[in-house]
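[job 4417] fold queue: 2 targets
>>> target A
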Amino acid sequence: MKVFLLDFASFLIGSIIYSVAVLTFLSPNEISPGGVTGIATVLNYLFSLPIGAVVFIINIPLLAFGYFKFGKGFIFKTAFATLCVSLVLDISEAFLPKLHIDLILASVFGGSLMGLGISIIMLRGSTTGGVDIIAKLINRKYPHLSVGRLMLCVDAVVVTAASFVYKNTQSALYSVIALYASSKIMDLMLYGSDKGKIVYIISSKTQDIVSDILTVIGRGVTIIDVIGGFMGDKRQMIMCTVRRNEVHAVFKSARKHDNGAFIVVAEAGEIFGEGFKK
């Protein structure tokens, strides 16, 4: 019961935030949110159909297909979340303000709130259906196509179609801004703000560099034995995980002891462990 109540509360809060994004910022300014909701807003514009009801109707066959492919656990949760979003969209349309504001502001605030609302739902192990299910179904048949890229393609088609319906080519450009803002907020919510960097250093002065990193920067390191592919010589590689603002200090330490050190800096989406997130 506790899990159900937490799920319901998250779906409700996420749905309210999502509805504010779509009904207050995006739809009144003819900015498409992409996906199934983007299709629903276009149909609302053309035929005054309720956005929430259209979202749920479009999702019914998708949820049915998903049931056979992904199992009942995931789909039941997704169906519940989709129903919450659809109901809140239609109920809140009666009293949510529709702001006709600067299109950049509408894109940024609408996209950010949309990403926040979806993230709150996804943090409970669900999705809002629609494009997510389409992308995963296609990915099952064509594994070489990434889910993210497929979702982007579907969103691009919806946004382009919406710009023709609105008879406004700029609409598509503002939609891109909204989708970008949404994706950045989702990354922040789902993967955390505790991003960092992984620094790989190959040098003949391994011990000097390691000593410097341990004492000056105060970060732990891992030493990995490696073999050069061209010469076949055995060497050691230093791997060090740091925060973004510590990268320059590591780089400086490596160059101080070996100006010819080979250094690679890679992105670390989220870091757990001592000195970072618990």
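>>> target B
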Amino acid sequence: MKKITGYLRLMRPANIVTSVADVLAGATIAGFFGRQPPSQTPACLAIGIPVSALALSTIGLYGGGVVFNDVFDAELDAIERPERPIPSGLIKRPEAALLGTALLILGILSAFAITPLTGGLAALIALAALLYDKWGKHHTILGPLNMGLCRGLNLLLGISVLPAALAQHGAIALVPVLYIASITMISRGEVHGSGRNLLYFAAGLYAIVIGCIGAVATEKDTVLLTLPFLLFFAWMIFRPLAKAIQEPIGKNIGRAVKAGVIALILMNASWAAAFDSLYLALIIVLLLPLSLWLARLFAVT
């Protein structure tokens, strides 16, 4: 049982839930849920199979990516975070590498089951994740952008459920790139703390992200529908960030990072609302208590 728990700790289950929210938001942006299914196919199957396959794909891709993060960081974690599964000896490094490989393969194959395009995007996500785990995280600017790229591609994975929507809405993926880059940037202060200027800069990037979603909602004439989700999102990310700015110690920064990651669910719900899908926005919000519960059991960062 301890071994199974160790594997789950490596996979960051609370974070995986947020990646599923990315796919749901992407499919909503694409207009997939408003599509009329073929008359000879039950609606639940026509809608459920592609989205379920992409949800399984993102579970494998995200899980595999974070497992390899710990595989490559084993020596550093032995110093800074010895309680993690690999440095503590609960999971051997080759065992973790095998798990990460299996998850990435699952993620890629599940996406290829839909179309070659979705499979290609999944392969790009896996590659971007491994590049970040091995090299990207060590670069001050390229590292956050690399991590943001993983999330942007994950949103595109959801949008690609209707390939034609990529050309129309693909630029939206730049928003999660910016958001995750800002979180990754401040996460470097989780252990030793950080300067306030970096946190203020992250706050500015958060405001730009909120502004982008608001601009899309204004264009779609869905501001009133989007506003409650967007305000909830803003409250969840700015409240811990403000505390970290007041006292920029590792513990407070870690809480701000954790809130920022889990709040991706609310950002995705805001996207669904902006694209005039209240019921999808509410479904995505229902993932929040699940992610919060898992975050109590397993580390987020």
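[job 4417] complete. Note on B: Residues 43-72 form the longest helix (30 residues).
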